[in-house]
Amino acid sequence: MAPAAASGGSTLPSGFAVFTSFPDLLFIFEFVFGGLVWILVASSLVPIPLIQGWVMFVSVFCFLATTTLLVLYIIGARGGETSWVTLDAAYHCVAALFYLSASVLEALATIGMQEGYTYKQYHENISAVVFSYVVTLLYVVHAVFSLIRWKSS
């Protein structure tokens, strides 16, 4: 299978075709699970404020940027330009890197909070770590297929 066929073509879809093409279908899952990470991190207690600040920044930034890109693709604001394919690939690579760093830091903070915190607080942080790694995986897969699309455009 050719790379263009594997990634759903060399152009970005517009309109509601965004919801039926791969890897653009992953926007929905990035949106849902990214929002869940945002909620879990905001409600959890992290012993190191700097770590929580970075994880919150990453989750909010990626949530808003993903939402913005999704809306722009749906309304067809790209106008068929190939620079949007480059933007899509670059954004998803940066988002994957940001989320990987945030996931590792959140896991490190969670490991360090086994004592002195309630059972509920500890499990909220574990949930945030798990979903953060799920979102990281989604962004990595989206980045790989966006890079394939970028290369073939």
Write structural notes for this entry.
One of its GO terms (biological process) is myelination. The chain crosses the membrane at residues 27-46, 53-77, 89-113, 125-148. One of its GO terms (molecular function) is structural constituent of myelin sheath. It is a multi-pass membrane protein. By secondary structure, the protein is mostly helical. The protein has one domain. 73% of the residues lie in helices and 0% in strands. It has five helices and no strands. It has helices at residues 3-6, 26-43, 49-75, 83-111, 119-152. Helix 4 packs antiparallel against helix 5 (119-152).
Shape annotation? elongated
How would you spell out the order of helices and strands? Answer: HHHHH
The number of distinct β-strands equals 0
* Structural class based on helices, strands and sheet pairing: mainly alpha
**Count of separate structural domains:** 1
User: How many H/I helical runs?
Assistant: 5
N-to-C span: 16 Å
Largest sheet: none
Radius of gyration over alpha carbons? Answer: 17 Å
Strand content: under 5%
